[in-house]
Structure prediction request, 227 residues.
Amino acid sequence: QVQLVQSGAEVKKPGASVKVSCKASGYTFTSYDINWVRQATGQGLEWMGWMNSNSGYTGNAQKFQGRITMTRNTSISTSYMELSSLRSEDTAVYYCARGPPIHDWYFALWGRGTLVTVSS
Amino acid sequence: DIQMTQSPSSLSASVGDRVTITCRASQSISSYLNWYQQTPERAPKLLIYAASSLQSGVPSRFSGSGSGTDFTLTISSLQPEDFATYYCQQSYSTPLTFGGGTKVEIK
Prediction:
């Protein structure tokens, strides 16, 4: 079925990096953008960035400039989001979310989320 | 960045009630406004896109309206499964931004 399956929870120390994967199935991977959204415990939703799964073109929120890298491997229909220089404030659930078939910015398909805990 | 302000931040309602949640943008976003529902420990679920278009599979008791800076999500008759947190999101420009959420609780 159509789904996004994310990698498992991670625990990282401050200053480290984390790489979260998001494997797509049930649809043509390169036809849809993938976005990344995070949510700290008990908090709201925060958009981090997006990637065109076909071209690999990316864009991100200024807040994460220099710290976020989004990539993909089309042969295995998987997107990746790497966040570096982690700090405690980066502790959150990270979601990948698929945009509609025409480049737009709403998300009907989400992964289940990956909890990233940053702690010394 | 476009700021999205939701009100109220929480509300208590009973099954069968009509519920209205508002979302205001800090600048005009035309109809580039989407609504999501989130229950605990779950990913958000898209309810409404482009201000008033009902996402496939979403019950018709959900509706959206508005344009410019002021938007509304209405649940015509609240059902037990509707107790959740609701978020608006603007898709007019990046960075995409979400409202702070409205938690709908059981009265």
Notes: Residues 47 and 57 of chain B are 9 Å apart (CA to CA). Chain B touches chain A at residues 32, 34, 36, 42-46, 49-50, 55, 87, 89, 91, 94-101 (CB under 8 Å).
